[in-house]
């Protein structure tokens, strides 16, 4: 049933008073003079994360090198501990997950593991609108195998700003060895039908991996049901792990005996790790895909954040996200449509992620004017202001206020005072 929203300024107060996730706002560091709408890029700090980081600092101060052996080797085995917290969020077994590195290095790890080109089957299938780091990694990997991207990277063209699943499936020809796609697109918030695409890949004998960076924590994911070969994701967006917090990789257990494309000492069996042999003794679960020593301070903030996510529950977060973004779109249509604003994302709940794509010809300058008014959001070329009412810490009253600020900016044309010189980070 379609949501029946009201334009009345008192209405968002009613929504906030009946928000089952409203209590979680107090678990985040919110600023009184700011409305934070950028959780799709970097989630806010949780008080739980601060507590975990300070605990690690105390352990380090007290124990020095012995930090690796406290609490039954908790920090030495930190990836395994965090995997227990991550598994319910992605619907996998804990031993199919490893927490380490960063998004791009984990993409390299996944591609180098599963891309084994032959004379007849040598192409990697990608799209043309994904976040570019994925393409940079794919191009790099095919070069390492002696190919040029022009011959070995098969690009499915989008239709306008969106991808069609059938176009992806039609491109699954016999020369394709591997597919790598995002489940949610960073610019348009489009959600791909992962099950349909993965099923088609398996029917054709093609290995498939997924980039979950813009979906993890915003949409429901069940990797066990999906049965893809691998997946990677960052943890600093909707998971609130902190700036550059350690990324994650999923390795389907049917591939545990594969040798990782990139091997390092932390992928060695823990029983023989400190024997320091020159031959790699592969830990045959996802932990075997780790490379170097864990970044404990980064992982500590993630531990605290994951506690909050699991307490709230991703299904509950998804329900709130769909509702509050629908409310935002309702307000945009009823208050801003006469001022050059349009909505650039798909409307169906099953096809949109956690952010709203507000489009305007003066999007960049309006985005900067919004920041000056205390609204944290970001801009993506050529005309998109990305607004993310995050389930755990954005209120309905804040959503209402943002639309009023936008209305004031365009009515007064205050954005015209903003120059067109781009900042490094927008």
From TrEMBL:
Reactions the enzyme catalyzes: L-kynurenine + H2O = anthranilate + L-alanine + H(+); 3-hydroxy-L-kynurenine + H2O = 3-hydroxyanthranilate + L-alanine + H(+)
UniProt xrefs under InterPro entries: Kynureninase (IPR010111), PyrdxlP-dep_Trfase (IPR015424), PyrdxlP-dep_Trfase_major (IPR015421), PyrdxlP-dep_Trfase_small (IPR015422)
Location of the protein in the cell: Cytoplasm
Annotated residues for binding of pyridoxal 5'-phosphate: 104, 211, 214, 236, 265, 293
Entry protein name: Kynureninase
Keyword Cell membrane: no
Gene: LOC113493770
Pathway(s) annotated for this protein in UniProt: Cofactor biosynthesis; NAD(+) biosynthesis; quinolinate from L-kynurenine: step 2/3; Amino-acid degradation; L-kynurenine degradation; L-alanine and anthranilate from L-kynurenine: step 1/1
């Amino acid at each position: 049933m379609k949501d029946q929203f009201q334009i009345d300024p008192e209405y968002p107060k009613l929504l906030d008073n009946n928000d089952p996730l409203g209590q979680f706002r107090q678990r985040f560091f919110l600023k009184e003079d700011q409305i934070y709408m950028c959780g799709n890029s970097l989630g806010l700090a949780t008080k739980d994360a601060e507590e975990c980081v300070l605990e690690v600092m105390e352990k380090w101060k007290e124990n020095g090198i012995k930090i690796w052996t406290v609490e039954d080797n908790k920090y030495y085995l930190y990836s395994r501990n965090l995997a227990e917290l991550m598994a319910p969020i992605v619907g996998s077994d804990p031993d199919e997950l490893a927490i380490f590195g960063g998004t791009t290095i984990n993409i390299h790890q996944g591609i180098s593991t599963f891309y084994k080109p032959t004379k007849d089957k040598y192409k990697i299938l990608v799209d043309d609108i994904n976040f570019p780091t994925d393409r940079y990694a794919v191009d790099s990997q095919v070069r390492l195998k002696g190919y040029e991207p022009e011959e070995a990277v098969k690009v499915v063209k989008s239709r306008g700003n969106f991808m069609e699943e059938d176009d992806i499936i039609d491109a699954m020809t016999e020369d394709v060895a591997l597919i790598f796609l995002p489940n949610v697109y960073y610019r348009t918030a489009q959600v791909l039908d992962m099950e349909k695409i993965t099923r088609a890949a398996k029917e054709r004998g093609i290995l498939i991996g997924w980039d979950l960076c813009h979906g993890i924590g915003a949409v429901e994911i069940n990797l066990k049901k999906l049965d893809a070969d691998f997946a990677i994701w960052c943890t600093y967006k909707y998971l609130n792990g902190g700036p550059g917090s350690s990324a994650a990789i999923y390795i389907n257990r049917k591939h545990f005996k594969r040798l990782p494309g990139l091997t390092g000492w932390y992928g060695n069996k823990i029983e023989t790790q400190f024997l320091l042999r020159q031959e790699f003794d592969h830990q045959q679960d996802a932990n075997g895909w780790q490379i170097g020593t864990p970044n404990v301070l980064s992982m500590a903030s993630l531990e605290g954040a994951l506690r909050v996510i699991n307490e709230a529950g991703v299904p509950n977060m998804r329900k709130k996200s769909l509702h509050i973004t629908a409310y935002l779109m309702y307000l945009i249509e009823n208050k801003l449509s006469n001022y050059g604003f349009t909505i650039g994302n798909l409307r169906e709940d099953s096809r949109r992620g956690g952010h709203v794509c507000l489009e305007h010809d003066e999007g960049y300058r309006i985005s900067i004017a919004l920041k000056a008014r205390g609204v944290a959001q970001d801009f993506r070329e050529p005309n998109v202001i990305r607004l993310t009412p995050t389930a755990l810490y954005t209120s309905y009253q804040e959503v209402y206020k943002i639309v009023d600020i936008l209305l004031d900016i365009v009515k007064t044309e205050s954005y015209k005072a903003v120059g067109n010189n781009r900042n490094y980070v927008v």
